[in-house]
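Lecture 7 notes: from sequence to structure.
We start with the chain below.
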Amino acid sequence: MDLKEQQKIDPVSRHADKQSDTPEYSPMDPPDAYAPPGMEEVPYEAMPPFLQGLMDEHKTIQIALESFEGVLGQLQENGLKPDKGVDEGLRSFFNLLDDQIVSHHQKEEKILFPVLHLRLIEKGEHSSGGESPITAVDMMEDDHVKLMQIAAVTFNYLGLAARLPDVRSRAIVLDAALEQGKALVELLRLHMFREDSVVFPLAVKHLSRSELNEMG
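Predicted structure tokens for the same chain:
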């Protein structure tokens, strides 16, 4: 996955009509994906409980991602040789995906995102082109869909590779599975960073404390 290319096609354009000598960036289109400029940092301690809970879940997912990344490295090095640790690592990650990551996304989509999306439109923090305004929330929801699609492809490729009798075909499918798995890791890691450092601070900025407390 080319993150630089993804930055170029990000749809959100913050304060698009503002004229200034200072370069303007979309909240979701920083010059460096992991170093957004000009964002007012909100420390974890200052976040309302609901957002702290989402950030805590991100930490749990991050630990699982590191383990999954290690499993992918073992598969790349050793292929599909019988390995109980690899099997358990894959099972653990995809169980986490089904049990926790999906529910985490649903929590964001049902509770936080609808209110924040409307507020960003009210404040003018959205794209200025197209039939309907696009906010940072739209990109986060798009990420959720992409993440599930990539996860499904990775899971299916791994299952297919394990069943193929032809060694060459098995190696080709395994390579495709590893490529998709690495893309999944990178996109999920970047997605959580964007939420922690951009979307959640936007929620603190534009939503009232009572609104955020009610979400919890």
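Points to note: DSSP finds six helices and no strands in the chain. The chain has one domain: 45-215.
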